[in-house]
Give the backbone structure.
Amino acid sequence: MLNVAVIAAIIFGLRKLFGASGQRSMANGVQGIFQYALTFGLLMVVAVGLSGLLASALGSGTQLVTNQSELARNVTFTVVGLPLLAGMIVWIRKRFHNDPNEGHSIAAVLFVLVASISALAVTMASATGVLYWAFGVSSYRSSSAGQFIVWSLLWLGLWLIQARVIPRDHNQIHYILGSIIGLVTAGVGLVRLIAATIDMLGTVIPDRLVSTSDHPIAQAAVNFLVGALVWLVYWLRQAVNSQRSPLWLVYVLLVGVGGGLVMALVSTSTVIYRTLVWFIGQPIATTIEQHFRGASNAVGSIVVGLLVWWYHRTLLGTRTERTEVQRIYSYLIAGVGLIASGIGFTITLVAIFEALIKQNVLVGGDAKNTLLASATAMLVGVPVWLIYWRGIQRNVQADPDEELSSPTRRTYLYALFGVGGISSVIALLAGVYQLLNDLFNSRLNLNTVRDMRFAVAVLVSTASVALYHWLIYRQERDIDVRQAPRAKRVTLIGILDPEFVKLVIARTHARIDVLERTDDSDTQWPIDAVVELIEQTQSHRLVVVNDASGPFVIPIAD
């Protein structure tokens, strides 16, 4: 009874504090943040308590728990947290009942996002533990089973709540984050699976899957399965067909295309470098097994990286006309290849310095290994850069007005000669400091040249990149950059119709706000008339009012 009385007093006091009629509009935002933050905390507390109690009940043996402190914590979290959580849920439900637009609020969207991702992370970790036990990788752990049951149900509940109360366009960040988590987990699992399979075949131990204690293939398969299921739910069922917003393009271009290609290029460089060092360089290891240890992970990374790159590349389409998204892709890959080439060129200069001063300070204890590292980086990076940069230049020749006015091209040039210039200045300062430091301390000798080798190499390579792209920019700087169409901001005043709003956004690409009329709840929105009004109005800000006589527009000054 005491607990109930305390809980009731807390809820009553909070409602009195934030539920007063005076200054309601000003306090409403703070009230919402407080409510959702407290609800999130209580949700996590209750989930921890329930999963702990369930783990104790699912534990093997006759004793319910072995740690009385954990029992006290779990009971406290459940007995105290559950009624408080129920009270907060009732309170939040009233917010949605009183304000149909509550699902659009930042606090509500952020609450569902953070709570869902938190539940997803714990569900994935506990599911991995349960599957390890199911595949015989590890012994039974009741904590994993308890966490999986409670947190998976919590995640499912939040998923259903999100579908009901949060607008779909506000859910994209949740779907994208879940897709990234699933893709990374599945990718790491698949890399480990390929590597473990190669190791098993290479050691000619056919029963490695079941005879060893670590079970690398089974572990990798479980990780891949968990990540693939999450990616399937979040990406293939939700995000892939959502609006191609900047967030969607960031995922596809940076995470999928860029991340996959970088992963493949780095891993390819690793394999080529180790092979060259073994045959013509100075390897440290004395046996081929020691030298190529871990190379199976690089092979797996090549396969997975190319697979991720290829899939996300197909999402960009292969239309005949060149779109801005395709330009972003071309310049992104060209940039990746150029960076790899620049690294290779820098290492080449370092190797030349080492050979001249006969200082063996890098990989393998010999300048030959340094040259092999530079050759590898350039062997991988130069072809990628040449292929995509020549393709870009062909597009410039075919349609110079369209290509040279592209904001993507101008951003690419700015970035390369800007970053290259800054890097050159930093390298110059470092090199001059090392020179003067040795000069003033009367120790100017070959060691000074050795100490300056990295600064000089970086200076030469970055300055070359910056100069090349600055010369291109100088020829094009008088060309006006094409501005992206400015999206109109439209306020609709009429009945609340989420499906109608989605149609208007799809047809006009405008940013829509809705104000619900309280004096007219019957007049439906005519979609064609509203779209025509928005498209024909020159102003970028406008209000569209719908009443019994039809919709009319009110232009607003910017």
Remarks:
- The chain is about 75% helix and 5% strand.
- The CA atoms of residues 316 and 325 lie 7 Å apart.
- Confidence is low (pLDDT under 50) at residues 16-27, 204-213, 360-364.
